[in-house]
Write a structure and sequence with these properties.
GO molecular function, one term: 4 iron, 4 sulfur cluster binding
Main location: cytoplasm
Helix content: 40-55%
CATH superfamily: Histidine kinase-like ATPase, C-terminal domain
Radius of gyration: 19 Å
Shape: elongated
Subcellular location: Cytoplasm
Enzyme class: transferase
Strand content: 15-25%
EC number: 2.7.13.3
Structural class: alpha+beta
CATH topology: Heat Shock Protein 90
């Protein structure tokens, strides 16, 4: 049965200041903290002694209720322009998502040109949805986010080493992201073999979110700058710069 929830159009106009403030409160803050709280409750559930089966059941029900709230909150926040994009740009927004994740996330950005608002919003929500799904369902030890340009196409990849077996048909989150990507003339793919992690990829025309003539497409492109940031959940972040292939692996959480 198709979902009865409305899908957010990618062509939605930029939100006004009050809406951006609302998005900041809901999406950038509350949702990620609720996810982290759910992870803590799961850890507490695993520490319950066998004799306290009643407590274990209550914790399990609390986690299920919390995840239901997160789903509802995600639907409310979808379509609102992320305030963090306006404040610091796409790379800063992705690094903020990584810092707030309950699982260590490495972000690599190789984009040497201006992206349109619609493209940036689509990338931001794609990464946010992929991180949320990984933490919620896959129990990974680390997640890798890569964003780079290939000619006139923007390539996004989010990979985790979790349980795999993800099914896009189970929820409206990935369906909504597919709508956004395809509305910009792009494509999306999800690969998730059981036991071998999940890889989310999206290809989006760079100029899809830019207004104006085709002159923007022929603009001189700077040499892509490579930035890598290793982020530990709840800890400080350290940044490295260099060519592709440098930098270490993200250690698993203790």
């Amino acid at each position: 049965m198709p979902s009865s929830r409305p899908r957010a159009p990618a062509s939605s106009p930029p939100a006004t200041r009050p809406w951006r403030r609302l998005e900041r409160d809901l999406h950038d803050g509350v949702q990620q903290r609720l996810i982290a709280l759910g992870v803590e409750l799961r850890l507490a559930e695993s520490d319950v002694l066998p004799a306290d089966e009643c407590l274990r059941e209550r914790l399990s029900q609390a986690v299920q209720s919390l995840m239901s709230i997160v789903d509802d909150l995600r639907e409310i926040a979808r379509g609102i322009h992320p305030a963090i994009l306006s404040r610091g740009g796409l790379e800063a927004a992705l690094n903020t998502l990584a810092r707030r994740s309950a699982v260590p996330v490495t972000v690599t950005v190789e984009v040497g040109r201006k992206l349109g608002d619609r493209v940036e919003v689509t990338v931001y929500y794609s990464v946010c949805e992929a991180l949320t799904n990984a933490v919620k369902h896959a129990n990974p030890s680390r997640i890798q986010v890569d964003l780079r340009t290939e000619g006139a196409v923007l390539r996004l990849s989010v990979r985790d080493d979790g349980a795999g077996g993800a099914d896009p048909a189970r929820g409206t989150g990935l369906i909504g992201l597919r709508d956004r990507v395809e509305a910009l003339g792009g494509s999306m793919c999800l690969t998730s073999p059981p036991g071998r992690g999940t890889t989310f990829t999206a290809s989006i025309p760079i100029d899809a979110g830019l207004s104006g003539s085709s002159g923007a497409a022929s603009a001189v492109r700077r040499r892509p700058a490579v930035r890598r940031r290793r982020v530990r959940a709840g800890g400080r972040s350290t940044a490295r710069s260099g060519r592709r292939g440098e930098g270490g692996r993200v250690p698993p959480p203790r």
